[in-house]
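Researcher: If only I could read backbone structure tokens as easily as an amino acid sequence. Walk me, if you will, through where the backbone shape changes along the chain. I have put the entry right below:
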Amino acid sequence: MDNLKVIVWGLGAMGSGMAKMILQKEGMDIVGAIASRPEKNGKDLGEVIDLGEKCGVLVSCDEDKVLSTKADIVLLATSSFTKDVFPQIEKIIESG
């Protein structure tokens, strides 16, 4: 069976924690990472989440570009309130 391909959207405390867990799990690969803060754009995900090493995934602020990447699941960690993330949920669904 192929590894589960994951995009992480939101790299604050919650998203960073999820990304670290995924990177330690067998059978899962992070194929994209979306950040809202421009200072994270273009950096390696490992650097952004303080992993201590690079992991080969570049963080992007271009959500459309990252969502065009083939993934099995998108983990959304941008807000705790559904009303605030509803447009992002719609975008994820529309991206397939």
Summary: The chain has four helices and four strands. The beta strands are 4-9, 28-34, 59-60, 73-76. Helices lie at 13-24, 45-48, 63-67, 82-95.
